[in-house]
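Section 5: illustrative case.
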């Protein structure tokens, strides 16, 4: 009986012979009577395991099974994920090749190879391969089924393989003896590499300039996809965006444009996604635009971590790489994909998507093509990040504008409400003042009449009572008049009755009215007029100006202690009349100056108030000055006194 394990061997082979052995095993897979399964190292491309310089091919069928394992490392270091070693196959009838088939003097690239047909050795290799792929439950179960299906090789198929194997070694030996090396210019490969590099840099510069000049992400991505596809002569180039939010609207990518919704990101992401951009070489190639992944991707965080760290996946033949992923393999077949190259689009450690190149036929991806696609993906990541930042800034700006608008509207509403309330208050005070002034006038008039009653003499107590009634009535009438005037001014109903009068005359009259009051408090009054007799006229509301001066003099006399002095000055500055009232009173603290012209404000506390008054005088004075389009200022030093200065425009120089 034929023993296939006699052909098993372990030794160092030229790389060319090893590749011929690989092709021979692929040929045997086609010859097998039943459908054969072919597993190669390509199934590890998308798996996050350390990539070693190790190659293998496993053929599994009912009539013929074999394992070819090769490594360019030292034999004792050769393994798969630190577990599959050459020693594992030594019990499978290991034998050495004749010396004429082995490499000598390291003249050619060599590889340590092991070929075995032993069922147990193949099963052990599949089990350890399954352990490496244990994160993928489907692949793990599939490999376990392959282990159980192993059977002894058919004698006819084994003999056929032996003849083919012998022909390879015989042919290789003959070629080695007759090899002639044609002359090739040393400069030509260097020149070709430089031209290719220059063309790559030119393409990258075009893409970089477009990113700098445009903020329209859809234009940048669509243009880049078309240019790169043409440049690399691809059958299809797509941009696949991963879903970043499970609640995202399913229609956010319709039409092949990256809408603003496609740029919202969160810290949580899923392994499913959508094709958002596509460029095809011909209409006959099926479109993948708007395709949504429906479960073919295995949710392995390790796998996606590789992409996040910049891993570029190169698949020369999907039939070899995805033999254990039937779902994805069937989809790629339906899409006419035979080879693919995928580069991650990553920014700020977030995996946004993949830039994927498709070829409808086998294609051996060169390192220069891998590097170019990876650099283009990096540029697209910059463009996407730039657009995301711009969108974020735009949203923040819109939100800020909305908040400012809302706040402004709220302030306007509050101002309108406050103005309405103030007008209502002023109207109420005006109404009440009118209602109070009528009976108060009667009280003042009748009390004055009784004080001068000619028909009988009043007792001293009666005279005192009547005088108190009369004085209190007059004081209350002044207060009501102030409230009424202030309400009219605040309500905008006050009208100036302008007339021409003498500046000197009004100053003298105002000061004269306080002589008796000042004498009672032992306060000296002084009038300082700096007015030219030829220019002594002012046009203003005489009554309002008198009230301004009366309020300022009243305050000065009230807050000046005995022995102090109050001075009224008047002069002209161009067409403006200036009144100044200076006292040597108690003065005003600097921190309270801002409250001086507020309504109902007095600088002494209401619990220990020493001076009479409601706090309306200065507030009314300020309103009356502003009603004349003038201004009032105050200077004060605590303990030394105060100086109030009023400017009233509207002087006419007449003699």
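Designed sequence:
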């Amino acid at each position: 009986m034929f023993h296939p394990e006699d052909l098993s061997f372990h030794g160092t082979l030229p790389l060319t012979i090893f590749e011929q052995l690989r092709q021979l095993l692929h040929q045997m897979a086609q010859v097998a009577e039943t459908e054969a399964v072919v597993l190669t190292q390509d199934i590890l491309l998308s798996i996050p395991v350390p990539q070693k310089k190790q190659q293998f091919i496993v053929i599994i069928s009912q009539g013929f099974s074999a394992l070819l394992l090769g490594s360019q490392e030292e034999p004792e270091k050769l393994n798969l994920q630190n577990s599959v070693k050459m020693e594992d196959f030594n019990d499978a009838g290991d034998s050495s090749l004749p010396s004429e088939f082995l490499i000598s003097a390291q003249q050619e690239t060599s590889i340590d190879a092991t070929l075995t047909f032993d069922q147990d050795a193949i099963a052990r290799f599949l089990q350890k391969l399954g352990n490496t792929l244990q994160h993928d439950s489907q692949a793990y179960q599939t490999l376990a089924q392959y282990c159980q299906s192993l059977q002894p090789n058919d004698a006819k198929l084994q003999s056929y393989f032996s003849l083919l194997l012998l022909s390879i070694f015989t042919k290789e030996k003959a070629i080695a003896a007759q090899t002639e090396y044609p002359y090739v210019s040393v400069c030509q490969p260097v020149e070709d590499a430089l031209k290719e590099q220059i063309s790559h840099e030119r393409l990258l510069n075009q893409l970089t300039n477009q990113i700098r000049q445009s903020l329209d992400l859809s234009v940048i991505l669509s243009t880049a996809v078309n240019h790169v596809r043409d440049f690399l002569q691809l059958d299809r180039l797509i941009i696949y965006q991963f879903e970043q939010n499970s609640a995202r609207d399913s229609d956010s990518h319709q039409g092949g444009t990256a809408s603003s919704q496609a740029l919202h990101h969160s810290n949580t992401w899923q392994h499913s996604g959508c094709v958002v951009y596509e460029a095809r070489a011909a209409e006959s190639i099926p479109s993948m635009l708007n395709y949504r992944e429906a479960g073919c991707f295995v949710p392995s965080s390790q796998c996606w971590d590789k992409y996040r760290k910049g891993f570029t996946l190169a698949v020369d033949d999907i039939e070899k790489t995805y033999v254990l992923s039937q779902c994805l393999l069937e989809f790629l077949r339906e899409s006419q994909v035979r080879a693919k190259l995928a580069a991650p689009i990553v920014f700020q450690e977030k995996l946004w998507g993949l830039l994927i190149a498709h070829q409808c036929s086998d294609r051996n991806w060169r390192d220069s093509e891998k590097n170019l696609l990876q650099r283009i993906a990096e540029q697209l990541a910059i463009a996407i990040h730039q657009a995301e930042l711009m969108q974020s800034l735009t949203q923040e700006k819109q939100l800020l504008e909305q908040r400012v608008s809302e706040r402004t509207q709220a302030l306007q509403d509050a101002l309108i409400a406050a103005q309405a309330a103030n007008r209502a208050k002023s109207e109420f005070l005006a109404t009440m003042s009118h209602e109070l002034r009528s009976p108060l006038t009667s009280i003042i008039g009748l009390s004055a009449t009784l004080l001068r009653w000619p028909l009988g003499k009043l007792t001293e107590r009666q005279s005192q009572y009547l005088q108190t009634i009369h004085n209190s009535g007059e004081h209350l009438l002044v207060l009501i008049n102030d409230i009424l005037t202030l309400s009219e001014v605040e309500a905008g109903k006050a009208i100036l009755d302008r007339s021409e009068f003498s500046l000197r005359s009004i100053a003298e009259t105002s000061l004269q009215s306080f002589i008796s009051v000042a004498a009672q408090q032992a306060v000296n009054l002084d009038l300082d007029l700096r007015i030219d007799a030829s220019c002594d006229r002012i046009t203003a509301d005489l009554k309002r100006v008198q009230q301004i001066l009366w309020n300022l003099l009243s305050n000065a006399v009230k807050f000046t202690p005995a022995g102090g002095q109050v001075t009224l000055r008047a002069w002209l500055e161009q067409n403006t009349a200036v009144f100044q009232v200076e006292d040597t009173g108690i003065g005003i603290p600097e921190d309270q100056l801002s409250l001086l012209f507020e309504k109902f404000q007095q600088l002494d506390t209401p619990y220990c108030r020493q001076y009479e008054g409601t706090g309306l005088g200065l507030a009314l004075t300020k309103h009356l000055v502003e009603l004349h389009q003038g201004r009032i200022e105050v200077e004060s030093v605590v303990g030394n006194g105060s100086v109030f200065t009023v400017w009233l425009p509207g002087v006419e120089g007449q003699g």
